[in-house]
Structure formats: structure tokens, C-alpha cells
Specification:
Layout (H helix, E strand, L loop, with lengths): L2 E6 L9 E6 L8 H10 L1 H8 L9 E5 L7 E6 L10 H18 L4 E4 L11 H17 L6 E6 L2 H13 L1 E5 L3 H18 L1 H4 L1 H11 L2 H10 L3 E7 L2 E11 L2 E9 L8 H15 L4 E7 L3 H9 L3 E11 L2 E11 L2
Parallel strand pairs: 1-6, 2-4, 2-5, 5-6, 10-11
Antiparallel strand pairs: 3-4, 7-8, 8-9, 9-10, 11-13, 12-13
The structure holds adenosine-5-diphosphoribose.
Length: 333
């Protein structure tokens, strides 16, 4: 799982594969972190930037780092804050996304960001911190190239904003390793026994955990049935897991479980936001799921999250067990 670190310091001193510059559209230098990076990199950086023909807000371009300890600089242009009426949030998120995509394309593994647009460009720091952390979090969930993202804060306000936002951030880690598969299966056993025994009885829970959520079953689903599993981490603790599969124009949400003590803490909403992003990235039109007709709390929770009840569906799961469910769906707008 890629790491996110939040530090205080001067980004020009960092030894990472690339530091990100909060530049302006000309890419010909300026004040703030832009000025610091050009001063530390030396005049060759300006010469290299002159060949780039500028950069529009939300985009990113790359040059060598020259005299900087980091071999590359990714120049991105943040939005000037205009009161939130000119797509500033989208443009700021794009700065982080395009910089990460550029770093991945270059095979870079470690990258450091300043607090883009929160200086001269006047972007409100609390909103900017959340956009930066969530955009990077969502990208890292599906990226195996990037190993470390550092948020290099230069002022105390940004440092405390990033640290408090990060402490509440839900992280999603794609299940790829045997360790993750075992952890997911262990979580499934805990959650299914604490949640489903009152609904479908111990015998059926045992049957389902053994046949559908054992390490072998999860590995088989991932390797041979095109399921994607993600672990949810909250306050550094494995707090749940998600399993999705593209089915035609739908993204089927096969599993979405949160451990009991974390229910009602907003992880459901965060999870659906993440799943909706996966659906959009996959070009799916809807997110569909099935939920046991007697699982009243989950039915209500999904309805609160915008899902509609599309009626009953009965599934024979073998060994004489039948799943009596409702099919529910949510447009992946
Ligand atoms: N290391 C890390 N962060 C720094 C450094 C540094 N050496 N110097 C400044 N910062 C921080 C600022 O404190 C701020 O939190 O970078 C963040 C971004 O502030 P700016 O550099 O002002 O960038 P931005 O708000 O995106 O405005 C961009 O400012 O410098 C000009 O040419 C630049 O026109 C562009 C505009």
C-alpha cells in the first residue's frame, strides 16, 4: 500500500523522485514555492521551462530538477481562488491527479507536493487540504507504481489542517497480496458473524464464509472472476472491505462491509463515493447490489445513500440455501 506522509519543511530540500511546483501559466518562475524551486534548481530550469510553452490551470508538465536533490520537477498550475464559482475545486484536484499520472508514466515512485494554490492564489486552506488528500487517496487505491506521496507543508496552518484531515481520512487499498487476502477473509468472518447470524442463522453464515469469503474463494474471485477487492482503513485500522465487479453497463457491488464499531462514522458515505468513482472510471452507468430482505438497517442505509429498491431477487447459493434479497441500484452520475 502506498504511503502518504505529511511533513513540515522546504520542498526544495527533499530527496524524492519528483517535487511538484505550484507554478503559474507561463512556467517562467515567480514567487512563493515557484521562486524557491527556480532559485534552488538554477538557471537551467528556466531554460527548460521556456521550451514547454506554458501550462494551463489543472494541467502538469515535467522537467529535470537540475541542481535540486530531486531529479525531476513536475510543474502544475493551480486555480486562482475566485470564490468557488469557476470550477476551482475540480481544477485543484486535477493538479494533483495530472501530477501523479505524469509521475506514474515516467516510472517515478516517490513524489512531494506543496500546498498548491493556498498561497498567492488564495485557495481556502481547509478545502484545499481535503481536495489534495482525497484526490491522492483515490489515485493511490488503484496505482501500484507510486510508493510514497509527501505533502510538504510550509506553514503551521497547513500542517495542522493536513494532519487533522488525514487522521479522519478513509484509505482504500486494493487487495493484491496474500496478506491482504487473508486480512480480508478474517474481516469477513468477524463482520458476517457479528452482523448476519441474527438475520440468516449461524449455519448459513458458516456456509457462506467458508464458501464465498475464505482466502481461496477471495483469491479465485480476484484472479479468475474479475472481482476487485479493496480494504478500508480508518485511523490506520482495517475497518471494512469492498468487492466490485463490472457487469455489462453496471458496476456490481458484491460486498461492502464495515466493522461494527465503525458503523455510523461516515465510512458508508465515503465508501459509496469511492465506489462511484470506480464506476465512473469504468464507464458504468449504475451501481447495483443485492441486500437480504430482512437486513432492514442496510436497506435503509443504502436508501439514505440514494439507492432505489428495484424489487425482490432470489438466489440459490447451494447446499439448500437460498438468498432472499432485494436488488438495489444507484446511477453512477
Ligand atoms: N517549500 C514548500 N512549500 C512552500 C515553499 C517551499 N520552499 N515556499 C512556499 N511554499 C508554500 C506556501 O506557503 C503555500 O502554502 O507553497 C504553497 C503555495 O503557495 P504559492 O507558492 O504562493 O503558490 P500558489 O498559491 O499556488 O500561487 C501560485 O504564486 O509563486 C507564484 O509563480 C507562482 O504565480 C504563481 C503563484
Amino acid at each position: 500500500m502506498a504511503r502518504i506522509e505529511i511533513i513540515s519543511g522546504d520542498i526544495t530540500k527533499l530527496h524524492v523522485d519528483a517535487i511538484v511546483n505550484a507554478a503559474n501559466a507561463s512556467l517562467l518562475g515567480g514567487g512563493g514555492v515557484d521562486g524557491a524551486i527556480h532559485r534552488a534548481a538554477g538557471p537551467e530550469l528556466l531554460t527548460a521551462c521556456k521550451l514547454l510553452n506554458g501550462c494551463v490551470a489543472g494541467e502538469a508538465k515535467i522537467t529535470p530538477g537540475f541542481r535540486l536533490p530531486s531529479p525531476f520537477v513536475i510543474h502544475t498550475v493551480g486555480p486562482v481562488w475566485e470564490g468557488g464559482t469557476c470550477d476551482e475545486n475540480k481544477l485543484l484536484a486535477s493538479c494533483y491527479l495530472k501530477s501523479l499520472e505524469l509521475a506514474s508514466a515516467k516510472g517515478l515512485r516517490t513524489i512531494a507536493f506543496p500546498n498548491i494554490s493556498t498561497g498567492v492564489y488564495g485557495f481556502p486552506k481547509p478545502v484545499a487540504a481535503l481536495i489534495a488528500l482525497e484526490t491522492v487517496r483515490d489515485y493511490l487505491a488503484n496505482s501500484s507504481e507510486i510508493e510514497l506521496v509527501i505533502f510538504c507543508c510550509f506553514d503551521e496552518e497547513n500542517l495542522s489542517l493536513y494532519k487533522s484531515a488525514f487522521s479522519e481520512l478513509v484509505l482504500f487499498e486494493k487487495v493484491l497480496t496474500e496478506q491482504d487476502i487473508t486480512l480480508t477473509s478474517d474481516l469477513a468472518s468477524v463482520i458476517w458473524n457479528e452482523h448476519y447470524v441474527p438475520i440468516i442463522g449461524q449455519a448459513q453464515v458458516d456456509y457462506m464464509v467458508t464458501n464465498f469469503q475464505s482466502p481461496d474463494a477471495i483469491r479465485n474471485q480476484i484472479q479468475h472472476e474479475n472481482y476487485k477487492y479493496y480494504l478500508l482503513y480508518h485511523q490506520s485500522e482495517p475497518s471494512g472491505y469492498i468487492s466490485i465487479k463490472q457487469m455489462g453497463e453496471d458496476l456490481f457491488l458484491s460486498k461492502f462491509y464495515v466493522i461494527k464499531k465503525k458503523r455510523g462514522t461516515g465510512l458508508g458515505k465515503e465508501g459509496i463515493k469511492f465506489i462511484t468513482l470506480q464506476a465512473r472510471d469504468a464507464g458504468a452507468k449504475r451501481i447495483t447490489l443485492t441486500v437480504n430482505v430482512n437486513n432492514i438497517n442496510s436497506i435503509k442505509a443504502y436508501q439514505r445513500l440514494g439507492f432505489t429498491n428495484d424489487g425482490p431477487v432470489v438466489t440459490d447459493i447451494g447446499a439448500g440455501y437460498v438468498m432472499d434479497d432485494y436488488k438495489m441500484s444507484l446511477p453512477a452520475l
